[in-house]
Amino acid sequence: MDYSAKSNKIETLSSRCLVVGVYSGKRAKLSSSGSLLDKASSKAISEIMGKGDMSGEPDSTMMLYGLDGIRAERLLLVGLGKEKSVDATTLRQAAASAATMANKQKVRSIDFALFDNKHGHMNLGRMVRHVVEAVDHSLYSYDQTKSGRKKAQALKSASVLVQRAELAQAKKGVAQGAAIAEGVALARDLSNLPGNICTPSYLASRARNMQKNLPIKTRVLSETEMKRLKMGSLLSVSRGSREPAKLIIMDYKGGKTGAAPVVLVGKGLTFDAGGISIKPSAAMDEMKFDMCGGASVFGVMHAVAQLGLPLNVIGVVPSSENLPDGAANKPGDIVTSMAGKTIEILNTDAEGRLILCDALTYVERFKPSVVIDIATLTGACVVALGNHATGLFSNDDKLADDLLTAGDDAQDRAWRLPMWESYTKQLKSNFADLANIGGRNAGAVTAACFLKEFTEAYDWAHLDIAGTAWKSGADKGATGRPVPLLMEFLLACA
Ligand code: BES
Ligand code: MN
Ligand code: ZN
Predict the structure, then answer these.
(1) Residue 375 and which of 70, 281, 388, 450 are 20 to 30 A apart at CA?
(2) Domains in the chain: ranges and CATH
(3) pLDDT grade, residue 148 (50/70/90)?
(4) What is the pLDDT of residues 281-318, one digit of tens each?
(5) Which candidate, 434, 228, 449, places its Cα nearest to that of 335?
(6) CA 379 to ligand 1 center in whole angstroms
(7) Distance between CA 272 and CA 402 in Å, rounded?
(8) pLDDT tens figures, 322-374
(9) What is the position in ligand 1's atom list of the atom closest to the CA of 446?
(10) Is 16 an active-site residue?
(11) Residue tagged active-site, from 74, 188, 206, 353
């Protein structure tokens, strides 16, 4: 898709499909761009709307053709809901339904005139970003492992129409939105791949490829190197699988030399069968998504490097499979982490924390400004927050607040959960420094408390994306979350 910003007059723009907003209420009401066009067409639009078929509710659309006085071939009215409550959600919904409709009808390009009101006091750049991201998200289709020729997408370009004075800001928003959208699509593509293709070695080779056309330096640590670093916890997980573990490091240096980097650590379990504490077989296929945290790190690194953000960012993806095998971890086994802490593995299915703890110790060497880990860590987080919000945990209130704000602004929300000392007591072991599970209660919290034991050297946040990283059912597939949240956070840092 090609995205751009323009400041043409909408009445005389020769558009294949011009999109304007309509508000709902007792009677549907045209937005100010809509009113301009109405005047130019001698009230043809308000006459049609008078018939009452267009409600202006979010998701409602109406395509109009051949209006005198307007150059556009098609005028697409999209509902924005109540004028007072237009926000990023309604804007995104409207953009997505317009793009879906235009694409279905094989329209090649689309122009959005949706920025006339200062919706919800959002800044224009961010509104533009939302529209670009929503369009791109709605057009995503997975075809990497389907035979036959790839269906070409009809819709090839989209533009946003703004006032001349806003053009520079809108162009910046378009560039950011397009880069974020590419990062989201990359995360979705990697996440949707099956476990037999997307192995730790495959992820490592994709990370190496990122160096070719982006200012990123990749390093991949082998099991031998991890052994030398004494990553006994991480290696205990991959011992039960024939695929060797990889520790992938992607380094982007856009900031000042020596400036402390933001470090992102993404869980990269390319398949999680549970190990000896094997999972039930229902929906086990979805455990190919257990590398969505890692995939989100790929997506963010891609977007950050493409935008050339003036920041130093390091992405780290510990990657392994978790399978049952003669060499696999057994309940009761005790391993020694890189930090020197011993861990009693009471459940081999709590493997994410076992690979993350060593990666979290490893990243101390980067002297990070902050570390954020992203992981499909617990089913308990899905029980707590459903698929609406990502679970957020942090040892620093400022970092937690910044991430919550970024989630709100990006419409990719998170919600903070506590990590009080009393929860950590649930991780007590009679035989080791720590147990890898804390019992049935507060499972998302005790998992975070486990990680906290390895993050004392820096400000740290943990994002549990078990409920938000993918969808089940008929729409089964990765969402690309929380790439938008992380990008919003990084844009605010830059
Ligand atoms: N990858 C899973 C978490 C998960 C489960 C995410 C279902 C999304 C849906 C993780 O490795 C895991 O198995 N966690 C266990 C922890 C338990 C053994 C303490 C869980 O949540 O059941
Ligand atoms: Mn597991
Ligand atoms: Zn897992």
Answers:
(1) 281
(2) 2-159 (3.40.220.10), 184-493 (3.40.630.10)
(3) confident
(4) 999 999 999 999 999 999 999 999 999 999 999 999 99
(5) 434
(6) 5
(7) 31
(8) 999 999 999 999 999 999 999 999 999 999 999 999 999 999 999 999 999 99
(9) 19
(10) no
(11) 353
Ligand nearest to the CA of 378: 1
Residue 117, CA distances (Å) to 85, 138, 458 in order: 12, 24, 43
| Residue bearing the bigger pLDDT, 240 or 115 | 240
Out of 276, 289, 349, mutate this one to test ligand 1's pocket (max ligand atoms within 8 Å of CB): namely 349
267 catalytic, yes or no? no
Which protein residue's CA is at the shortest distance from atom 17 of ligand 1? Answer: 350
pTM of the model: 0.98
**pLDDT for the residue numbered 119:** 57
CA of 352 to the centre of ligand 2 (A): 6
**Tokens representing 50?**
């008078």
Note the residue count of the chain: 494
Residue entry with tokens 């400004």: 369
- In the reported structure, the alpha carbon of residue 154 is separated from the centroid of ligand 3 by a whole-number distance in angstroms of 38
List all residues 6 or more positions away from 235 whose beta carbon is below 8 Å from its beta carbon: 223, 226, 227, 245
469 CA closest ligand 1 atom index:
8
Amino acid at site 452: K
Catalytic residue among 6, 279, 471, 476: 279
* CA distance readout (Å), 250 to 69, 137, 211, 244, 296: 54, 25, 9, 19, 13
Cα gap 153→148, rounded to integer Å: 15
Dihedrals φ, ψ of 158, to 5°?
-140, 140
Output the ligand 1 site: residues, CB below 6 A: 272, 290, 347, 349-352, 376-380, 382, 437, 443, 466
- Return the sign of the alpha-carbon dihedral for residues 485, 488, 492, 494: positive
